[in-house]
Amino acid sequence: MSDIEQLEADILAQIEGAGDETALENVRVGAIGKKGALSEQMKTLGKMSAEERQVMGPLLNGLKAKVTEAIKQRQDVLKRASIETRLASEKVDVTLPVRANPLETGRIHPISQVMDEITAIFADMGFTVAEGPDIETDYYNFTALNFPEGHPAREMHDTFFFNPDENGERRVLRTHTSPVQIRTMETQKPPIRIVIPGKTYRQDSDATHSAMFHQLEGLVVDEKANIANLKWTLMEFCKAFFEVDNIDMRFRPSFFPFTEPSLEVDLQCDRSGSEVKLGEGNDWMEILGSGMVHPNVLRAGGLDPDVYQGFAWGIGIDRIAMLKYGMPDLRPFFEADQRWINHYGFRPLDMPTLFGGLST
C-alpha cells in the first residue's frame, strides 16, 4: 500500500470513528486544516518535477475531495443522531396548562404607575415634566434655595454628603427635587409650568420613611401667579388623583426656606374604619407642602422678583401611592418581593388616562 493510500485509509477511519461533531471537527482540522496531514502533502507539490506533479496532483486533490465529502456525510449522520437523542430525552407533556402570556403575568410597580398618573393629570393642565441630576452641588441643593451657609435649616433634611473634592466642595445626594426649579429658571424664560418627579435621599428609614424615596415638585412662574392659582391647582390635582368628585382642603401656615408664605395642605378624611376615606368625615390628613416662591429663589434663578412671582409645592409620591392603594408599609416598595408586586402591581397595558380613568 502506497503512502497516499495509507493516508486515505487513516483519515477515512478517523472520520468514521468520530462520535460527535466536536470530534469530527478535530479530524477535519487534522486532515485538511492549514497544518493537516493532507495539506502538508499538498505543500510538497512545488518541489516535485513536472512528471511527478502530473501524477501526485490529481491523487492529492482527489483525496481532498473524497475526505471533504466523507466529512460532510458523517456530519449529517451525527446531526440526525443528535436530534434523535434530544427527541428521546426532551419530552413535552401536552397535558400541562398553557403558560400565561407575559402581558398577563408582568406587573408595573406602583411607583411607576403613580408617576404616570401624575404626569397624565398635570399634562392635561399644561405642565411639562422636568428632570435633574441625583447628585447635586451644595449651591443648587441649599444656597440657591435660600438656605444660607451655616443656617440650621440645612440640618432639616439629614443630608447624605460626599467627601470633599480637590476644591473642598462637598456634593450631596439631593434631599428634594427643588434644585431642578433653579436649573429650569436659569435656562427657560417665564411662563414656567413644570412638574419634577424623581428620586430623593435623606437619612431616615421606618415603615413610612425610606433613605431613598420619590418626590414630586411643582413650579409655576409668571407675572400674575398667586395663592388662588396654587389652591386651584392642588385641589384639581387631588380630585383627579384620588378620583373623587369633591374634596375639602385646609391650608395651614408653615415654614420652608424657599417659599414665603409657606403652607401645609391637609385633606379632609374619615379614619373611623379600616381604610382612610378621602373627601368625607371630620378628620384631616397632611398631604403636601407648598407656598409662593421666595424672592431670593427667583433671584438665584436669574429672574426679577419685582416682575415675576410663582408658586411651588412638593409631595411624596411613595406616600400618596400608599394612601391611594392601601399599602400599610413603605419598605416592601424596595424589597423586590414577587408576591407583593403581583398583589399591588398594575398590568402593563393599563396606561392611566384622564378620559379612561387613572386606576381602572
Question: Can you characterise this structure?
Answer:
This protein has 360 residues and is α+β, with helices and mostly antiparallel strands. 40% of the residues lie in helices and 19% in strands. The chain contains twelve helices and eleven strands. It has helices at residues 3-17, 21-32, 37-43, 50-89, 102-105, 110-124, 138-141, 179-187, 227-242, 295-300, 317-325, 338-344; strands at 128-129, 135-136, 160-161, 172-173, 192-201, 212-222, 249-256, 259-270, 277-278, 283-293, 309-316. The strands form two sheets. Strands 1, 5, 6, 7, 8, 9, 10 and 11 form an eight-stranded mixed beta sheet that branches. Strands 2-4-3 form a three-stranded antiparallel beta sheet. The relative contact order is 0.11.
Number of strands: 11
Report the portion of residues in β strands. Answer: 15-25%
SS content category: alpha+beta
Largest sheet: 8 strands, mixed
CATH topology annotation of the largest domain: BirA Bifunctional Protein, domain 2
Number of helical segments? 12
Instruction: Compute the number of structural domains.
Output: 2
Mean pLDDT: 84
Amount of helix: 40-55%
SSE ordering: HHHHHHEEHEEHEEHEEEEHEHH
Question: What top-tier CATH class of the largest domain fits best?
Answer: Alpha Beta
